[in-house]
Design a protein that fits this description.
138 residues; alpha+beta; Nuclear Transport Factor 2, Chain: A; five-stranded mixed beta sheet; 3 helices; 30% helix; globular; SnoaL-like domain-containing protein
């Protein structure tokens, strides 16, 4: 694969990740979940369940919303894309999220595995969120 192709894939994945993060940060639920494949899986440090589908995650999300959950903003730092095949890429970053009812900004790091679907769209197929051990954004 040529460097130009890798660069185009890299840029497409980065754009897909930025769209996903922007939707999350705006609490645009429909656009956020549209960024994931229906069979995506999710592992979150603050949830003991390994979530095995987008629909299950949407169900959990609605429960959080009933409890007052709302994203007020999200910053993505140290973005990195690894294209690992013609249709698979890994996006990693550090995340700073403001949530309604939380006094402090959440400090996490995240990995999202993307796969290009048959229509050429990069969709998340796995997300893993953990606590960021860094205490500063230096």
């Amino acid at each position: 694969m040529s460097a130009a192709v890798r660069s185009a894939d890299h840029d497409e994945v980065l754009a897909a990740a930025r769209t996903l993060v922007a939707a999350f940060g705006a609490h645009d639920v429909a656009r956020y979940f549209a960024s994931f494949d229906e069979n995506a899986s999710f592992v979150f440090h603050n949830n003991d369940e390994v979530i095995t589908s987008r629909s299950r995650y949407e169900q959990i999300w609605r429960g959080w919303e009933r409890d007052g959950f709302k994203i007020l903003g999200c910053r993505s730092l140290d973005q990195r894309v690894q294209v690992v095949g013609p249709d698979v890429a890994i996006f990693t970053h550090r995340v700073r999220t403001r949530v309604a009812g939380e006094a402090a900004e959440l400090r996490e790091r995240e990995t999202i595995v993307f796969r290009r679907d048959s229509g050429g769209t990069w969709l998340g197929i796995h997300e893993h969120l953990s606590v960021d051990p860094r205490t500063a954004d230096a």
